[in-house]
Amino acid sequence: MKGNRNIFYTPENQYPGMPHGEMCGDFMPFFWQGTFYLFYLYKYCVYAVETKDFVSFGEPYLVLQNGSPEDQDWHIGTGSVFEHEGIFYFHYTGFCESNHGVEEKNEQVVMRALSRDLKTWEKDLSFFFKPDARYYGNLHWRDPHVFWNEEIGKYCMLITATEKEGAYLRSGCTAVYVSEDVRNWERYKTLYAPRTFITHECHDCFQMGGKWYLSFSNYSRWWETRYRMADAFDGPYKVPEKDDMFDGREYYAAKSVTDGEKRYMVGWESIREGCKDSGRHLWGGNLLVHELTLRADGSLGVKLPEKIEKSFNTPLSIWPTERQGSLSGDADKIEVCAEDGFGWAELGRLKEICMFQTTITWEEGTRAAGLMIHADADLKKWCQLRLEFKHGRIEMDRYNRVDGDQQYLDERPVTFKGNSAQVKLVVSGNIMLVYVDDVALTARCYEIGVGSIGIFTEYGKIVCTDTQLLEQEKCEKTCATA
């Protein structure tokens, strides 16, 4: 297979008109003996790829083959992997769309497969978990997530379900079933039912710092992964006060995995139809991994995983060049001032795969600042990461939003601490991954091409320190296309 094997994994190169089945998505991460096994959906089957560092990846291999149109698992959907008494269990979703509305049949059923080596799997035909129509609706019944729950002393299975009654497209809920032997499952409770979303897809539940976190994805408005927090597994689960997402509107189906020391959110960054910046977002895309951090108030932040950051170890030249406004200082301390409007300085040339980082400090009253990405000298083309201080947010904007283009901006809320923020940008092909302190925002830029990196300010003055532009020491040609 040809695809991206460097950080933003995907088994297939993206191309205009790419069929739905060729995309990959819904990564199901499992850590075992020093290796992350990333199971994922691809061509209506389940494949897997292995990595030790989220930087480089092995060759993908088939895990579960989908069935025929008459089989319950005509299309295979999301699930989870765990180990019990030397056997690996993979609970997954069996989709058969032709069963919809057919009496005594189900469109979605929880199924499972067994393995002793994580590579060779055999479907367990004796396990067939249909929607529990006593308590839940008869359609949405998928994405089983199984884990050992120390707090209640049983295995828990989270299931994407809907309440039997409720407002249209607002009955999504998270059902929990429990087992002591992973063979017999009984209903425990409805863990979360806010009457807000169509469904809660690809959920996860884990502990950090003495609290429980329930994550889920939904497609009610855009691709999004959200989370809730509680003091105990049984809840109640509450919405974090300021921000309940891990990334922007294109980060989907993220599930967590831990190596015993750190915990990561493993999801995918959506691609756009036709490889165009104006195209609608489609299901599937590239692997996107964030390391979770715990804030003082118990909410979750994210950061670039350490091994990914350390893979960028070869400095590239920084040569501050005044473009608009005034520029002073040198590469160690870059000052840009434009009290009457917009000013920017070009700093260097981006590579196909590279990382840029800096610490931006701004004078009180400065309206906005940030990065000029893939920019040319006269700004005929550019992307812009905006830090909007008074509004408490970051945004990703593009040059071609003119003449009635009403597409939304990619944006995230940020609580700026003082008048300083650390900014990191990872570029890989058309992907732009940004961290502003512990907040992430990922977007794509298809139609501009590689350009320069710069900094800007609006109605004020900024100072940039600890500025670096780095590339990886080695990157095979097969790594280059994101």
UniProtKB/TrEMBL annotation:
GO process annotations (BP): carbohydrate metabolic process
Gene Ontology molecular-function annotations: beta-fructofuranosidase activity
InterPro entries xref list: GH32_Enzymes, Glyco_hydro_32, Glyco_hydro_32_N, Glyco_hydro_beta-prop_sf
Known EC number: 3.2.1.26
Tagged with keyword Hydrolase: yes
Superkingdom: Bacteria
Assigned keywords, A-Z: Glycosidase, Hydrolase
Occurrences of domain Glycosyl hydrolase family 32 N-terminal (ranges): 29-295
Family assignment from sequence similarity: Belongs to the glycosyl hydrolase 32 family.
Alphabetical list of PANTHER family matching this protein: BETA-FRUCTOSIDASE
Protein name: beta-fructofuranosidase
Source organism of the structure: Parablautia intestinalis
